[in-house]
Write a structure and sequence with these properties.
Strand content: under 5%
Shape: globular
Number of helices: 10
Order of helices and strands: HHHHHHHHHH
């Protein structure tokens, strides 16, 4: 559990600097130069993510169960997860989805975390997915207050939306039938525990 907690602190701590101390962050970037800041930020984030995933993998099978979801909740989770991959991809292409949602990556994280919290009720899972959900909510509120919108690099195009939705739904199908089992070790269609 220690690795999971340290990973949560490092990962979300690095991701929250702009939320809790934006002026300090700006001064630090000026002081150490942008490329050094990005390098340090990337190292801390990568270390946090590695510890987070290792810690979660260690404790996910043994922690206390806080709640058990009804079996029909699996169907709700499949529906909630449907837009996650298209939104994730829409965050990185100049389409209308990105403009309409403003921060599609945060919307994707909120849907992903909520869906997983509905079906996974152990202490480790609640800490893991709950942290992502809480961070995404706080980050979105912070971005609204700071009036920060993602930069528009080129004019939006419906073609990018089609690509994001098509590739995203392809990833969704691949995740259901194969990737979740390979990456997480819990096949979605062969087990009712995920």
């Amino acid at each position: 559990m220690i690795l999971l907690l340290v990973g949560l602190i490092l990962f979300f701590g690095s991701h929250s600097i702009s939320i809790v101390a934006p002026l300090w962050r700006d001064r630090a970037v000026l002081h150490v130069r942008d490329y050094r800041w990005k390098g340090l930020y990337s190292l801390v984030t990568a270390a946090g993510l590695a510890l987070l995933l290792l810690g979660y993998a260690q404790v996910r099978h043994r922690p206390p169960v806080l709640y058990v979801s009804p079996s029909w909740m699996r169907d709700v989770v499949f529906v909630l997860m449907l837009p996650v991959f298209p939104l994730l991809l829409a965050a990185y292409v100049p389409g209308h989805i990105r403009i309409a949602t403003k921060h599609p990556l945060l919307v994707a994280v909120k849907l992903w975390a909520t869906a997983h919290l509905l079906i996974n009720g152990t202490l480790a899972e609640v800490l893991f997915f709950g942290s992502f959900l809480l961070w995404a909510i706080i980050d979105r509120i912070s971005l609204k207050r700071r009036n920060v919108n993602p930069p528009v690099l080129r004019p939006p195009s419906a073609l990018y939306d089609v690509i994001a939705v098509t590739v995203g739904l392809g990833l969704y199908v691949a995740t259901i039938f194969w990737l979740h089992g390979v990456i997480i070790g819990a096949p979605l269609l062969a087990s009712s525990s995920r």
